Amino acid sequence: MRSKASFRGHPSHPALIPFPFAFLIGALLFDLAGVWLDRPGLWTTGAYLIVAGVIAGLIAAVPGIIDYRYTVPPNSTGKKRATRHALLNVLALILFTAARWLRGDVDVEPDTLILGIEGLGALALITAGWMGGTLVNRNQVGVDHRYANAGKWQDEAVKAERGGASIKVKGGLEVNQMKLLRVDGKRVVLGRTADGYVAFDDHCTHRGGSLAGGVMICGTVQCPWHGSQFDLANGEVKAGPARNPIHVYRVERAGDELEIFGVADSSAS
Ligand code: FES
C-alpha cells in the first residue's frame, strides 16, 4: 500500500519568517523610540505591532512544525538545532505576549519591566533566527532540491506488510536521481545508478544528514552537510568526515515494480 506525499522542497516556512521577525523587532524599536522621544503614537504603534507579530508567528509555526516533523532528519545534529530553534521562537512569542498583556491598553506607556521583557523576547527571536539561517544554509531545510536532469524532490510513504521481508515500490527515476521512501517511520532512499536501482538508509553516519538531499553520481552518494561520500555498492565510506558505512539494501525487479529487502526488519530511525 502506497501513498504519495511531499513535505520538502517547499520554501514556505523560511519565506514566512521575516513577517513575525520584522513586526516584533519593530515593536521593540517603536516602544523604545516612543519612550525616548515621549511620543505616544510610537508606542501605540509598537503595541499593535506585537499583536501582528504574534499572529504572524503562529501562522509561520504551522509550516515550521511540518518541516520539523517531516523534513529535518531524525537523530541528527540538525534535529537538535531545530528543537532549540523552535523552543526559542515559542519563548519569544510568550515573552512578547506577556509584555503586551502587562501593558493593558495600547496607549499605555511601556515601563522598564515591559521594555525588558520585550528585549528578552527580541534576543530569543534573533538567536532563533540565526539558528534558522543555519538550518537553511547548512542543513538545507526548506531548500528546493534538484537531481540530475532537473529531477525534482520525490517523497513516497510506503506501508510495509506485517511480517513481510520486503517492500515493493515503483521506480520512475532517471539515472542519478533519488527519492525518499518513508517506510513506517523509517527513511530509506531509492536511487537509480547506471547499473540499476539501489536503496540505502537516509542517514549519514557522520552527523545524521539526509542523503536524499545530497547528490548521487557514478554509484556514489554525497552528503549535503559536510561532503562525506559513500559507495552505494556496499555502503563503504569513500570520503570523510564520516568513518562508518551506511546501510544498503538489496533491490530486485519484480515485474514493473522494485522489491527492496530488509527494510521492514530493521528498526525505524
Ligand atoms: S552529516 Fe556530516 S557529512 Fe553527513
Question: Can you put this structure into words, describing what you see?
Answer:
It is a single chain. With 269 residues, this protein is of the alpha+beta class. It folds into 2 domains: 10-137; 146-261, Rieske Iron-sulfur Protein, CATH 2.102.10. Helices cover 41% and strands 22% of the residues. It has helices at residues 12-16, 18-37, 40-71, 77-103, 112-137; strands at 2-4, 146-147, 151-152, 155-158, 166-169, 177-183, 186-193, 196-201, 215-217, 220-222, 229-231, 237-239, 248-254, 257-261. The chain has an 8-stranded mixed beta sheet, with no helix packed on it. A hairpin with a 6-residue loop joins strand 10 (220-222) and strand 11. The chain is elongated, with a radius of gyration of 23 Å. It starts with a strand and ends in an 8-residue tail after the last strand. The relative contact order is 0.13. Mean pLDDT is 88; it is low at 1-11. It binds FE2/S2 (inorganic) cluster. FE2/S2 (inorganic) cluster (FES) binds next to loops.
Strand content: 15-25%
Say how many strands there are. Answer: 14
The main sheet comes to: 8 strands, mixed
Hetero groups: FE2/S2 (inorganic) cluster
Mean of all residue-level pLDDT scores = 88
Quote the distance from N terminus to C terminus. 21 Å
**Cα gyration radius (Å):** 23 Å
Fold topology:
Layout (H helix, E strand, L loop, with lengths): L1 E3 L7 H5 L1 H20 L2 H32 L5 H27 L8 H26 L8 E2 L3 E2 L2 E4 L7 E4 L7 E7 L2 E8 L2 E6 L13 E3 L2 E3 L6 E3 L5 E3 L8 E7 L2 E5 L8
Parallel strand pairs: 4-6
Antiparallel strand pairs: 1-4, 2-3, 5-14, 6-7, 7-8, 8-13, 9-10, 10-11, 11-12, 13-14
Helix pairs in contact: 2-3, 2-5, 3-4, 4-5
The structure holds FE2/S2 (inorganic) cluster (FES).
